[in-house]
Design brief:
hydrolase (chains A, B), Metallo-beta-lactamase, Chain A, globular, Metallo-B-lactamas (chains A, B), MBL fold metallo-hydrolase (chains A, B), alpha/beta, homodimer, RibonucZ/Hydroxyglut_hydro (chains A, B), binds zinc ion, 3'-tRNA processing endoribonuclease activity (chains A, B), seven-stranded mixed β-sheet
């Protein structure tokens, strides 16, 4: 299994794409979020993926830096189904608000001859807090991260052999996620900026973490591998070096601060 | 007056951004369309613009390669108004369908504490076929291009000294546009591909033109300067050269096939 980061930035970035990624296991793919628009399609292409292989998609929440690329995926899928250039089915998972908004946007934006495939061969599936589904053949549990901004879900995937991969979405860890995040083999967590630059970027006012905070948390939770994402982009050339340097002081496992398009073996 | 192309591609491109541009006259700016997402913000930055200077925006139609970037502009404007970091007002013009969809999307996606600025300091203004408005201090007439796909408007701007700039949107010229397009000093028209490659790209099935078609048309209409945009991106490195070579055989005026971020003095 591996993960390819299509984007690694927060909502406001212009020097990288917004946080979204592909999990890959053999010929199966799970796309998580879509970033802020059709640059998703460029990132998929640049990473060597065929967008048609993204048969399972999960959307964490409705913020435009996560949902807009998925609105484009709906267009691509439905249009190609209509043109006879897309075989089989695809499924988009999300909580009730996400699925409702995706449907409404598709109906507003796309012609009926395309949206007729929604519910037919493109399935928009509501998942609930604590619900288990099989994604890429792995047992996956969705959970509400209890955001106070917009309702948001993370997920915990059983990787096999007792390992689990947990995605906490784009907000700091909340105690309610403990049973999922604790002892994860892989933890995906946001880090808005360096703790050293908290006075510049004000992460706490924005309800975000620093590299230090996320690393301390991962240490406490007994995590083996930590991936930091959803960062600012003001010094993206040195981001990997500086965030890694800061985080390593507080986390004894393997710390990853990926660039856009970076692939990591899980 | 000048124009900066933020994007020059059709809906499906991944090697450039979707067609959208900024008209600039002194300190005044008109943004026309937004492309497919937040790459609009990157393109504005790369072109040297401050997104806050885009105080007038016109949206031609609801297709996602045109409207999504404008949904992002609404976010940026309303969020910054809320934070006290945006002075004054801004206006988005569009026909009834565009304005209705923009409002509905904003209300679905953004919090009430941001959308409350819509109608207050961010004006979403419906324009009708043949309606005149003053944009950037220039008399501008909006017109229905009579699209059979999605309702779409172009516009014709009085540049002063008898010159006019006419934008035909992203579909081939229709006779109903004659009084606007004829004798334009500047004509903006789509060219999906080369006529030489019509058998590869099937422009006519997609209701699009070739570089040859648009150039012949501009010649017939007595146009002085022709800008071609909304192209495919399969050979973008040689696009300018090849499209210009083909078009020049049929158009005796000045032909422009801009790259993304190219600025042209009008
Ligand atoms: Zn986000
Ligand atoms: Zn278009």
């Amino acid at each position: 299994m591996n993960i390819t980061m299509l984007g690694t930035g927060n909502a406001m970035v212009t020097e990288c794409y917004n946080t979204c990624f592909v999990l890959e296991d053999g010929d199966k793919h799970l796309l998580v979020d879509g970033g802020g628009g059709n640059t998703l399609l460029r990132q998929l292409k640049q990473a060597g993926f065929d967008w048609k292989d993204m048969r399972e998609i999960f959307v964490t929440h409705k913020h435009v830096d996560h949902i807009m690329g998925v609105v484009w995926m709906i267009r691509m899928i439905c249009q190609n189904m209509k043109q006879g250039q897309y075989d089989g089915e695809a499924t988009i998972y999300g909580h009730e608000e996400v699925i409702r908004i995706l449907k409404e946007m598709a109906e507003m934006l796309y012609p009926a001859k395309q949206t007729c495939f929604i519910g037919d061969r493109l399935h928009l599936v509501v998942v609930n807090d604590g619900e288990e589904r099989e994604l890429m053949g792995h047992k996956t549990t969705f959970f509400d991260i209890q955001s106070t901004k917009a309702k948001q879900y993370g997920f915990c995937m059983d990787m096999g052999n007792g390992g689990k991969l947990t995605c906490c979405g784009d907000e700091p860890y909340n105690e309610c996620e403990k049973k999922y995040a604790e002892n994860s083999k892989w933890l995906l967590h946001e880090a808005f900026c360096l703790y050293d630059q908290a006075d510049v970027f004000h992460p706490y006012e924005k309800h975000h973490s620093t590299a230090k905070d996320a690393s301390e948390l991962a240490e406490q939770l007994g995590v083996q591998n930590l991936i930091l994402y959803h960062t600012e982009d003001k010094n993206i050339v040195r981001r990997k070096e500086l965030y890694t340097e800061e985080g390593k002081k507080y986390f004894s496992g393997n710390l990853y601060v990926p660039e856009d398009l970076e692939k990591i073996e899980l």
